[in-house]
């Protein structure tokens, strides 16, 4: 891995960690497009670039979610009863998501990611919270919901918060509990999704040196180290900045990144 690639990944990890801490979002929606840009610039095999970007993004969530969950748990905000009900479905869905991605070519996967990011950007721009209109479903319903959240998150390399938080608030879970519980769900999503990406990528021909399945290990290491260090700084800065206004700016950035991934899909 050359020095320019290391420098690019260091800067990306630092920026993603800071944004995650500042805005309370997962880093996958930023990581995937920028990693796609970096790997494209370094002439990685084009048929694997989007798969590797998504897989590596999921791998980093495994590490960054731990510090986030500890902070939320210390405040007593995590609804562990909900985590226990959603986790089984999430583990299965997060394994299935990368399997679906492995059946798709790079263009189709880039398009799926662009659609998800566009939806997330609209959600952030409007800042609308679904009205609490029902209670949490029973065990079968929670298993199904977890399966849906996990499959989508595993497919696009995100922590699932843009799906799980609205679902929980719709089911009368207070917003701060929903956000904290979503952070806790990030770990099983990332764990199952990472193992799935390793398994389904193990026999893919043409993957570059340093890959474990679809995961690019040097990037996983560098991004995880820097993002874990800058996330607390972002969280601290959030108290001094107008986060609601920043989220609207960030939503516009997401639209631009979705546009880039659409360009990759049709290029």
UniProtKB/TrEMBL annotation:
UniProt entry keywords in alphabetical sequence: Cell membrane, Membrane, Transmembrane, Transmembrane helix
Compartments, record wording: Cell membrane; Membrane
Record bears the keyword Cell wall biogenesis/degradation: no
Transmembrane spans: 48-70, 82-102, 108-126, 138-163, 175-199, 211-229, 249-266
Membrane topology: Multi-pass membrane protein
UniProt lineage: Bacteria, Pseudomonadati, Pseudomonadota, Betaproteobacteria, Burkholderiales
Protein name: Probable membrane transporter protein
Domain of life: Bacteria
Family: Belongs to the 4-toluene sulfonate uptake permease (TSUP) (TC 2.A.102) family.
One Pfam family per UniProt: TauE
Entry-linked InterPro entries: TM_pro_TauE-like
GO cellular component, as recorded: plasma membrane
